[in-house]
Amino acid sequence: MTKKKKHTSDIEKVSEEFTLVQEEINKDLLNENNKQKEKNKTYVLFVSLFRNLRENKLYFLSFVITVFSIFLFSIIKVQEAEGIYNKNNLEVDKSNVPVSKEENNTNVVVDEIDVSDYIGIYSKEFVLTTPITVSETCKVDSYKLVYQVKKDKTITKYLYNSCIGTIQIWSDKVGYISSGGARYISANKVNYLFSPTSMKEVDGETYSTDNTISSLKNNKKVKNVDFYFYGDNIVIRTDTNLLHLKGSNINYNLQDKFTNNGGNLKKTVYKAGASNQFNFIIFSNGDDNTCYSNYDASTEDSLVYKIYSIKYDSENNSFNTEKELVTRYKSDKCENYETDLKILDE
Fold this sequence. Notes:
The protein has 346 residues and is of the alpha+beta class. Helix content is 31%, strand content 35%. It contains 4 helices and 19 strands. The chain has a 10-stranded antiparallel β-sheet, with no helix packed on it. Strands 15, 16, 17, 18 and 19 form a 5-stranded antiparallel β-sheet that branches. A 4-stranded antiparallel β-sheet has the order 11-12-13-14. A hairpin with a 2-residue loop joins strand 7 and strand 8 (198-201). The radius of gyration is 41 Å and the shape is flat.
């Protein structure tokens, strides 16, 4: 009797285990069926979408607009996130920068800066492509741009030449500024990098220590010559010429374009009252007369002089095309001559 009960119990266990296995199999089959159904639904949806895009132009246009809108929205969100990030970084940088010469940072605090290691004179020489005449006694074939760093925490920039003399371009207090994750010494909106033997303008020229210049003082030696500075661009007005220098290049030479042949004026080029404008007179009569009060109408008429204006474009650092203001012939006599001279200096 006991053996029979035990045998029955074993059969029941086997039956239960078989039932559990069968249930697991059924579950797996059900999951596979569900997955297959999902795949079928996805396939049907994709086929339907493709068919509508191909056959329905309005549906296709709506689809394109939707995709473009989602793409544009994503870009805007990314830019906004980057803007917030950059703004936060900028605020952190500002809190750590005692000095900035940028437009949005005008508070000058120089107490924390230390320039003791950089005190000295630095220069770079530029040899001109052709010599220029600045005055009767001054012919220039090269010049130096010179920086002086002083212990009073100032940087001063000069134009230096033996016959021109020393001309101060600008002077400014130095300070720190952060740009592009780096910290620079800055003055007059120019950032600098220093080494034991040089001073480099960031994105500009490199100036080497100069032991040949012992001191620098504003001392222009040439008379009746004006110098105008636009960064490293130099405009020189003499009594008879107008020049534009940039480094070693002569970008404009008035005498190369216009030959003055006649008249008796010692000064033919003027700085006009208008910003960055110059006026000049060019004679073409071939003699010392500036006008002809006794002009004989029976004789051949001819050109005496023209007056021009020219403006320096400080944004593009170049001279614009000359504009003709006045043209006078011998037949005009001298009735307008004095008035014309006033135009030169207007």
